[in-house]
Amino acid sequence: MANIKSQKKRILTNAKAQERNKAVRAEVRTRVKSAIAEGDASSDATRAAISRIDRAAAKGVMHKNTAARKKSRLMKQLQSS
């Protein structure tokens, strides 16, 4: 455990951010799975998945290139099925 007060605070705030980020990533995975299950590129589930991915990138949970890659792979999978 850290002895410095600011480091103790950083440990606490990092833990909070980690929990928040974990929830956002889980939500993205859930939305992507439901979009794939529906199998339609123009469905509400697909729009919701893309929206969640964009929001995660905007909040800094995932990198913008990671978000672009996830959206691209999602659309590619939906177009092929």
CATH domain topology: Methane Monooxygenase Hydroxylase, Chain G, domain 1
Based on helices, strands and strand pairing, what is the structural class? mainly alpha
Number of helices: 3
Low-confidence stretches: none
- Tell me, what is the CATH class? Mainly Alpha
Main beta-sheet annotation: none
Give the percentage of residues in beta strands. under 5%
Number of strands: 0
Give the helices and strands as they follow along the chain: HHH
In CATH terms, what is the architecture?
Up-down Bundle
Radius of gyration: 17 Å
Q: What proportion of the residues is helical, as a percent range? A: over 70%
Span of the ends, CA to CA: 51 Å
Whole-number average pLDDT? 95
**Could you state the CATH homologous superfamily?**
Ribosomal protein S20
Domain count: the total is 1
Shape: elongated
Task: Provide a compact summary of the structure.
By secondary structure, this protein is mainly α. It contains 3 helices and no strands.
Description:
By secondary structure, this protein is mostly helical. Helix content is 83%, strand content 0%. The protein has helices at residues 5-38, 44-59, 64-80.
Features:
81 residues, mainly alpha, Methane Monooxygenase Hydroxylase, Chain G, domain 1, 83% helix
Topology:
Blueprint: H1 5-38, H2 44-59, H3 64-80
Helix pairs in contact: 1-2, 2-3
